[in-house]
Design brief:
The protein has seven helices and no strands. Helices cover about 65% and strands about 0% of the residues. By secondary structure, the protein is mainly α. The protein folds into two domains: about 5-70, 434 Repressor (Amino-terminal Domain) (Orthogonal Bundle); about 85-120.
């Protein structure tokens, strides 16, 4: 499941909507919406995200959050380490092989390290 898919499922469930009903109402197939919720489809289009925002009558911060979740919800990520250090390439490859075996705590710890590193000034 992707962050976007998880949020859509929560919104749908909170309103008591079936997958089939929501899919019909926003103009996609139930199979596509299910795949989007479960992370078996790529990042949704801007147009679809806007239809979902309108469908749930979401405004301001919640709409912005949904757009951001869509942007970080591609389940098939490619990391291009060309021109980077050997260590960066090793890290990317290790992560791709091991991510399925990480616990929720491990993932949260790695996210914390990456977020902290992104706040540091660029030390090229």
């Amino acid at each position: 499941m992707t962050p976007f898919g998880q949020r859509i499922r929560h919104l749908r469930d909170a309103r008591g909507l079936s997958l089939k009903t929501m899919a019909y109402d926003i103009g996609v197939s139930a199979a596509y919406l299910s795949a989007l919720e479960h992370g078996r489809r790529g990042t949704p289009t801007w147009s679809l995200v806007q239809r979902i925002i309108a469908y749930f009558n979401i405004i301001w911060d919640e709409a912005e959050e949904l757009v951001l979740l869509a942007q970080i919800s591609n389940p098939r990520v490619v990391i291009d380490t060309a021109g980077m250090s050997a260590e960066a390439t090793e890290l990317a490859n290790t992560l791709s092989r091991q991510i399925a075996f990480l616990s929720a705590n491990d993932i949260a710890a790695l996210q914390g390290v990456l977020k902290a590193a992104s706040r540091k000034p660029n030390q090229s």
